[in-house]
Write a structure and sequence with these properties.
heterodimer, A: mainly alpha, 0% strand, globular, B: alpha+beta, Fumarate Reductase Iron-sulfur Protein, Chain B, domain 2, two-stranded antiparallel ribbon, 7 strands, elongated
Amino acid sequence: MAQYKSLFSGSVGQKFTMGLTGLFLILFLIVHVSLNSLIFLNDGGASFNAGAHFMSHNPLIRVLEIGLFAGLIIHIVQALRLTLKNKKARPLDYAVNGGKFNSTWYSRSMGILGSLLLLFLIIHLANFWLPTKQALIKNTEHNTYTNLKQVFEKGYIVALYLLGVASLFYHLLHGFQSAFQTLGLNHKRYTPLIRKAGFGFSVLVCALFAAMPIALHFNILD
Amino acid sequence: MSNGTMNLTLKVWRQNNATERGRFETYNAQNISPDMSFLEMIDVVNEHLIQEGKDPIAFDHDCREGICGMCSMYINGRPHGPKQGVTTCQLHMRSFKNGDTIVVEPWRSAAFPVIKDLAVNRSSFDRIMSAGGFISVNTGNAKDANTILIPKDDADLAFDAAACIGCGACVAACKNASAMLFVSAKVSQLALLPQGQVERQARVLNMVKQMDAEGFGNCTNTGACEAECPKGISIENIARMNREYLKASMD
């Protein structure tokens, strides 16, 4: 009997959506951080600009970009729906709550961390995505590397980006392994490996993301 | 403290019924033996309240040996108190210090409405069980139990899941008041055994549907349920339930 409707509805189905879109966004992060790392080749941004040009002009990437925004929006909308349902499930909160004895603070704060990430993302898109799009519409060449250097001249922007990366770190730290658990991938032998991989991934990705504004702000790269 | 007994201050949630607003009342529990269980300590407080012509604190309890799942107090921010792997009836007063202030609340969940004070109505769990927590059996004489072969690993996992006493501590501890640990334990127990195969797919779909209808929240994999479960039920069961649900949804 076809029960496919239940696949994406109800508490378990909605969680599948969260896990799948989360993993999809993680795949995007791998692409993003790889391209960012091109600045560390220290070639005056030539490789980085070539990468940025490819990402903004390739037709396949254009289609994937729509998919990426769709994935992000589904992840956010579903999170909001689930959060509202969860609030209704406990109308009156405890006077004393010992959450710290049974779970990590970041696993309990995914909504707040996600909201901080969203705020960061809006600023981030305004800083870099929007100028690229404007150049594309005007059909002018956009030097993303120069754009980067200009944005990260300001100390408060660097601080803001580091805060965004910190939110991402803790969001990933819980989200990476949580997605596997939600999709039913829990195994005595593999779950500890998934947890370690999730930790390693979060550290590596966030360290690379954080290194970029720091390196540009302090002119560590030529 | 005299003769090794303890004096404690209790802040207990008092609520007359499901609709009325509740409030905290403060009581002094005096001359409490450290060897008493938490429930026996409340019994002593209640005896004094009755002697004073006051309304005793209503709370659930039955076997008082940690196997029935009736006791259900949220003590100092944790279901069944500060000790791991025990129910409130197995929690002894030696786990507290003389002069401590202890805050006692009921399980807080929309699906567990307060009956009175610390007693909550957990019949939502019964309705989830009615939706799928059963197996088909043939009528007639009982067969020899050993005619059905079960791999040892499966039998062990099913037994671990079957240790769930349905107390609701998982719901109480979860920041989302989710019942997934309870439901997944019941789904796992039966899905792992040959006897549970007939209703296997319908069971997981119907039990999850009923869980949602009762107004429980959603799992965010914080692991609080597993940490607070008096029977040590693992969140591996939640992953198994999700797999069962995925398979049943795609069939």
